[in-house]
Amino acid sequence: MKKVFLLAPLLAALLSSGCMHYARGSGSHLAFARIYVAPVRNDSLAPQAQALLTKQVRRKLADEPNLEIAAEPESAAILEITIVKFEQTVASTDTNDTINAKSFNVQMSVTCTLKDGQTGKIYFKDHKLSDSVECHAVADYQEAKHQIMPKLTEKLATRICEAVCNPWE
Predict the structure, then answer these.
(1) Rounded-to-integer distance, Cα 102 and Cα 91, Å
(2) Which secondary structure element, helix H or strand E, spans residue 169, and what is its range?
């Protein structure tokens, strides 16, 4: 019984040291400390996605521990995003009515450019990213599409932030 009491502090120390070196964020060292996310341009037919995507990218980048979101492009890296494609394809139809689709695959593609605002150095240019979600329309397809848009832009924002925060040469 004495051995258990003697080993208890050692065991507690071993178990608590596992999270000691945890650091929030991607862990990579970026070439810049501030980033300006320009308002997203929409060159597609994606309905009102630009404001939502801009907000989500800014929020995700704000979670990076060594990165500050700049309100102005001066003295910061500049991230420019353009929605270039928004596509909807039929995934399934009603068995009694093959004209009215019941679910759709909704895909969005963007291009991103990251550059240094002071020197003009291009970190990456026209980097293409895309993602998709399934949209299930029980009654009103427009309402269903409106509800899945935040999910689609959230997935794209995650991919954009991974591209920005991963080291590049």
Answers:
(1) 8
(2) none
Residue ranges of domains in the chain, CATH in brackets: 32-165 (3.30.160.150)
- Residue 74's pLDDT is what? 84
pLDDT of residue 28: 58
**Residue 39 Cα distances to 28, 71, 79, 141, angstroms:** 25, 11, 9, 28
Distance CA 143, CA 24 (A): 37
For tokens 């997935």, name the residue.
155
Compute the average pLDDT of residues 2-18.
58
Instruction: Name 105's Cβ contacts closer than 8 Å, sequence gap at least 6.
Output: 88, 89, 90, 91, 132, 133, 134, 135
Which among 66, 71, 63, 75 has a CA at the least distance from the CA of 116? 75
